[in-house]
Write the structure tokens for this entry.
Amino acid sequence: MEQGYHIMLEKPMAPTASECQQLVDTSERLDLNLQIGYVMRYSPFFNRVHQAIHSGQLGELICISQRENVSYWHMAHSFVRGNWRNSQESTPMILAKCCHDMDLL
């Protein structure tokens, strides 16, 4: 951003809250766009869900219940033995998986 570029980042935008705040502060100071690329937001399935909710065809939305069901093999492969096994070296599970849920909400 210091070189004048708008930035689009993959999740997580930074490993710590203070580094996230630094990115936001820099983008505001320089009046540049800072965007996080949540790819599920643009998938056809979630676009259709969004349309159904906002069209009113489902009625009034009054409650949302959601859970992140990570299958045993994905948990073992990715978060126990895989690339995301150590939150000091990679993204913690709550950021890697649940950030999409929060973005969609």
Remarks:
- Residues 54 and 74 are 33 Å apart (CA to CA).
- The two ends are 29 Å apart (CA to CA).
- The first strand starts at residue 7 and ends at 9.
- The longest helix spans residues 17-30.
